[in-house]
Structures are given as C-alpha cells and as structure tokens.
Amino acid sequence: MEVVIINQQEVGTLLPMRECIGVMERVFRSLAEGDCSLPLRQIMWLPEKIGALGLMPSSWGGAGMLGVKVVTFFPGNEGTELDSHQGAVLLFEAQRGRLLAMIDATSITAIRTAAVSAVATKLLATEGAADLAVIGSGVQAQMHLEAMRIARPITRVRVASKTLKHAESFATDQSARHSITIEPCPTVREAVEGADLICTTTSAREPVLQGDWIKPGAHINAVGSSVSSARELDAAAVAKARLVVDRTESALNEAGDFLLAKAEGAIGDDHIAAELGDVLLGRVAGRRSDDEITLFKSVGLAVEDLAAALHVYENAKGVGAGERTEFGGSRRATH
Fold first, then answer.
1. Closest alpha carbon to 66 in 28, 32, 39
2. CA distances (Å), origin 120, targets 23, 259, 277
3. Which pLDDT tens digit goes with each residue over 291-333?
4. CATH class given for the domain over 116-297
5. Domain 2-108+302-326 and domain 116-297 have a common topology
6. Band of the pLDDT at 280, cuts 50, 70, 90?
7. Has this prediction a pTM greater than 0.90?
8. Domain 2-108+302-326 in CATH 3.30.1780.10
9. Half-sphere exposure (CA, 13 Å, Cβ side) for 105?
10. Cβ 223 vs Cβ 117: under 8 Å
11. Which of 48, 212, 260, 303 has the most CB atoms in a 10 Å sphere around its CB?
12. Which of 123, 133, 237 lies closest to 183 in space, CA to CA?
C-alpha cells in the first residue's frame, strides 16, 4: 500500500498561509455543524515536565478522513536548532481505514495555528485595525505576523520578547522578509500601548499581558498556552474582553488563561461568549461595538491538523511532491 511522506520543508510550500486560512474557515464551520469528532488531547508528561508527548485524534465526516497528530513538546528547545513542537500527522481515509500520508507536524502546527488566529481576527477585530503588537519572537510570532498581514491592513508592527535582544533579532529578520519596519520594544507594555491587534505567542507560564495595558477596541489572539496550568493574560485582561474560543470543551479543560482567571473568581463559565465556528455561521455575534475588547483563546484542535494535512496531501498529489513508499496494510502472505 502506497503512503506519501511529506517533510517539513515541503509542508511550507504545500500549505500557503492564505490557503490555510480558507481551509480553517471550512473546517470550523463543519465542526460547528457537528460534522467533526475529536476527543480531548492526551498528554503524557516526562519527569520534571521537561517535555511531553501529545496525541490528538479526530475525524471529519464530510471529507471522509481520519487523522491523528503525534507530537512532542519540549519548551527547552527554544533558542536551539530544534523546534519546541515536533512530530507527525497521520492521515487516513475513513472508508476502509487506509493510511494515506505521514506529514511533518512542526510546520502544520505553526501554519494552522496562525491561520486560525487570522480567521478570528477577520471576525473579531475592527475593520481598520492596523497597529499590531506581537509578544514573543519564535516560530508562532513569525507565523502570526504573516497571518495578521493577510487578515488586516497592518501599517505598524511592534514586538516584545523575553529579552530585548530577541526582539531586535526578530525585528531585523522579519523586517527584511516582509519589507516592513518592525519596532523592537524593551517591554510588553510599550509594545501593546495603543495597539489594535495583540498576538501573544509565548511559552510563559505566568501573565505577560495585563488588562490595564489594553486599549478599548483591541483584539487579542492568545495562542501560547494550551495547558491548564499556564497563561499569558492576567485575570483582568480576560475579564474585560468578549471571549471567543476554538472549542468550549477544550477551553474548560485546557485553557489556562481562562481557567486560572476563573479560579481567581474573576469570571465564570458563562464568560465564554461563543465558539469560533458559531461566529463563522452567524449564530452568535462576534464584535458588538468598536470599543469592545475581543479575545480569541486558542488551545489548538486536532481537526485543524487533520484539515491542514488533507490540504497538504491533495496539493502534494497535484504536483507530485513527497516521497512515496510501500508501508503495509494489505493482507498478504508473509511466507
């Protein structure tokens, strides 16, 4: 049985950000319509929590596909030659269960996360949002800069990171890549002052963004934390915002930004205004006024990886990309 193996570099070519945004819109509509199935992710932590192995299975009925992302998370890789997230997405067809492809998960995770934030930004940010603050300087910061420039007509970009040196390096590299001027800031507060759009893309376990710093009408994409014990926003920031999540069940179990604010008594479960798919379908209003602060809290869903992997696979077939190999699965005699 032929299986296609698609590597990290190929994923970047086969999953352009603009196309991925459209794919994410489609799968979130399907999720809201009940056409997708996904259990909560399973995470196995190593001793001292130096790293973890995550399993994220899902199915997409309308597409006739099953998939699972198997990924490791090692935050200590930041600043090294290795990404903090590494692994593979396995793509299966749902009619007979054939394995179709094994696709690098590092690039899929990076691109689809920012693409979902772009979907949320198109729905929730003010039309004229043009002043962007990026908090963090890693892969997700890079991807979110690209995605935000598609979602809105960005005219100003500021970045803050763990150190000013990191912010300066990001500003230099990404200014050249996008032919824009990016301003490195020594503090998060200086980066977000007056910003229309804020993307938090850090590995912080304690808040880096405070509610007092956020201007009326701003939109925030919070993507750095996907575990219940870590957060990037303080309780005040979450409490003052209209909160939209990728999936309510996931937020109630995995979103530290929400759960820790709830534990402090700042909000309750009813603070979740909507799921992203319901806003896409027009079932629930997104932004209700120009002065309202909106917050999209993303923990990342398995159906995002499945949809992105399917798009990569279909594009690979169209151009003959990937390595094809016989991998088994057929009932053949072994003697």
1. 39
2. 13, 21, 10
3. 999 999 999 999 999 999 999 999 999 999 999 999 877 766 4
4. alpha beta
5. no
6. very high
7. yes
8. yes
9. 24
10. yes
11. 303
12. 133
| Mean pLDDT in residue range 62-81 | 90
Nearest to 224 by CA among 200, 241, 198: 200
Asked if 65 and 83 count as a contact pair (C-beta separation under 8 A), the reply is no
Return d(Cα 110, Cα 120) in angstroms, integer: 16
96-110 confidence digits (pLDDT tens): 999 999 999 999 999
Backbone angles phi, psi at 32, to 5 degrees: -70, -25
Question: Where do the domains of the chain lie?
Answer: 2-108+302-326, 116-297
pLDDT of residue 335: 47
Token duo for residue 42: 């399973």
